[in-house]
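TA notes. Do not distribute before section.
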Amino acid sequence: MAEPAPDMRGKPRVDYGEHTWLELRELARRDDVVCVIPAATLEDHGYHLPIDTDVRLVEAITRGAVERFNGRSDARALLCPTQVHGYTPHHLDFPGSVTLRWNVFVESLLDQGRSLIHHGFRRILIVNGHGSNIPLVNMAARLLNVEHRDAICASSFYLTSPASLASLEQHRTSGAGGMAHACELETSLYLAVRPDLVQMDLAVTEIPADYTEHVHMDWTDGPLSLMPHWSAITESGVTGDAAAATAEKGEIWLDRAREEIAEFIAEVAVRPRNRGRDHH
């Protein structure tokens, strides 16, 4: 059977999974294609937000970022399916939360990355949307770089660059502790993405009273990390000021997050390879 030549007109599409294996083989021959893997989890987000909050937000951000990047550059990005389940055992007191063991989560990301690298996609960006995934996503990216010297695998959260943090400070109306979980920020973003799923009449303000100079949560947490069961921190599932959320803020921050991730993609697309060398 003769192998057909792939029709690459209009390719790549945004979604990795919408290509045939012939098309993906062709795309993998390029050195300027970045595979973007969103990662999140399913967990409680107060009385007012669905448990898919982390998933829906990181998907909206990464899809917009990939579309934006592809529209302004000769390089290209592919949006891989979301790693829906993450590490969240501390949320299991709240019905609906689903967790993977930390090592299973890391290995799932590693196997996805290894598969992409095996096929020739050696530029990968993992975009995380769940706080407790952060060290594990960073570890997975680091291990892929160590295992594959020709790979460039980076990881990030969203709204963490200096420009993004400035935007949060400019537009927020909550005080310290108001942007942690199911908060002014996440609720505003969800209002911008799917307002029909947000029950603002159930949104509450709940900021733990035992915060200190060192132990506290906001979009940037305190320097001392302490994470007990989530039900020991909050009754509703909220840590922050969900009542301060608006769709208008959400539109501003969603646009900023998409721009930030598009900038991260651009850096991964052109970053030079540095294999290092064994000094033995």
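Switch to the second chain here.
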Amino acid sequence: MRKFLEPVTIVFVALTLGFGISAFFSYLRDRTEPLIPFTKSELSHYFFQEKVSHDELVYKYHNDQPIKILLVAGHNDEYPGALFENTREVDLNIKVANYIYDILKNNPHFETYVFQKEAGVFDEKISVYLGEKDHIENFKTSYQRLAKWFRGEDIDAILDDSLHTDTPEEIIQTLYAINAWANDGDIDIVIHIHFNDVNGRTKDDIGNLSGFSIYTPGDELINKKVSYELAASMEKQLLKILVPSDNPEEKDIIIKNDSLIALGAFNTLNSASILIEYGFIYEEKFQSEEFLKNIARVTYLGLQTFLEK
């Protein structure tokens, strides 16, 4: 018991005395010796342990405790994502999110939130976090400092995935705000909804790649296990109507990634989280509303089979 209480007490006292969370993590960052009598590895166990498990979610589902789902349709009006002719990725993302929501909203097993039901129109609760820019900046830097101190990670070297290195600062802040809200709101599962693209393609051209992929937290993140299990369930259902990505970098379909903020980079997210690239935006089938509804249906089935274990 002492081994659990002492690190917690250290944090509590630091914050109670007005040390401030950012200053406290700065203190940790600058230390060259562990807090006696604990090693960094021992302290890491307390701060970086799994918060959500598959078994816990299955228990909630079967015992009339609603599973809290957050659907995040990626991008916004200013940064609409991939483009094909007159189709914007953000609009496809929102359509799929709303179709999934329509399936889930009347199911008592789920309590469902949609990040944006229209481009730039955000969930009221999340909007509060989007407006707290200083708070979100502290949230981000605090977790980064904690990761650096515990693991000696070079923060500057951990970039947002190699396929997403041009992410605007506004989007980065938004993603961290989503993670902060999801943690505070005890969200169980976060699903990020996207459509892929080929680098360098002009909006009127059809690219040479097709197929879906699912990104899931890498081995350094606390939500890796439950997220991978969710991704595996989702993969089985999506394969009923979609083909795997033929991008060589996505050949495994499920791709582990430690640096995507959406998945909880620097352990900023407790929830199970996956990012689905349903396919490439120029694929003809995505122009069909019925096909988008089918995507929503199999996504729901992926959730259902995951929870009916």
